[in-house]
């Protein structure tokens, strides 16, 4: 599948690796063991700021959501959030952070793995994790539709769009 990167919503993590200056407080959320080395390096790079580092499981879940909600509720002006881990966990955490009121410039995403994607089924509106590349297919575990993983990412849902592989052939 040939896609012009200027017209896709697939994250371009290298371009998004920036965080607004002036932050006095930083919370680093690292997801899984694969994120530890990168998170450790980032923690030490925020000299002169108060840094909290919270280590979480590799997958996004209720515990991570509750921790992020508590951090966002306690946040004051000048707080920055750094997310280090698999793309699927980062997109989910980013979605929760934006819902809690953070701005894009207050969030620094640092992916360590993009092999597993969260796919949103356009047919039954469920999401699932799949080790699939963009343009490949995965089966929705809820409705059994064979989905093409499209080059569109909903940052609100924290997921890639999946639609029926035979959508244009159905009547």
Q: What does this protein structure show overall?
A:
It is a single chain. This protein is an alpha/beta fold and 171 residues long. The chain is built from 3 helices and 9 strands, in the order E-H-E-H-E-H-E-E-E-E-E-E. Helix content is 21%, strand content 33%. Strand 5 (117-121) and strand 6 (127-130) form a beta hairpin. It starts with 24 loop residues before the first strand and ends in a 7-residue tail after the last strand. The relative contact order is 0.17.
Q: Give the strand order, joined by hyphens, for the main sheet.
A: 6-5-9-8-7
Percent helix, as a range, is 10-25%
Tell me, briefly, the overall form: elongated
Ends apart, CA distance between termini: 24 Å
**Helical segment tally?**
3
Biggest β-sheet strands, sense, barrel: 5 strands, mixed
Q: Measured on Cα atoms, how large is the radius of gyration?
A: 17 Å
* SSE sequence, one letter per element: EHEHEHEEEEEE
- What are the low-pLDDT stretches, counting only 5+ consecutive residues below 50? none
Question: Helix and strand layout, with pairings?
Answer:
Elements: E1 25-31, H1 36-45, E2 50-56, H2 62-74, E3 79-86, H3 87-99, E4 107-113, E5 117-121, E6 127-130, E7 137-139, E8 146-154, E9 159-164
Parallel strand pairs: 1-2, 1-3, 3-4, 5-9
Antiparallel strand pairs: 5-6, 7-8, 8-9
Could you provide a short overview of the structure?
The chain is built from 3 helices and 9 strands. It has helices at 36-45, 62-74, 87-99; strands at 25-31, 50-56, 79-86, 107-113, 117-121, 127-130, 137-139, 146-154, 159-164.
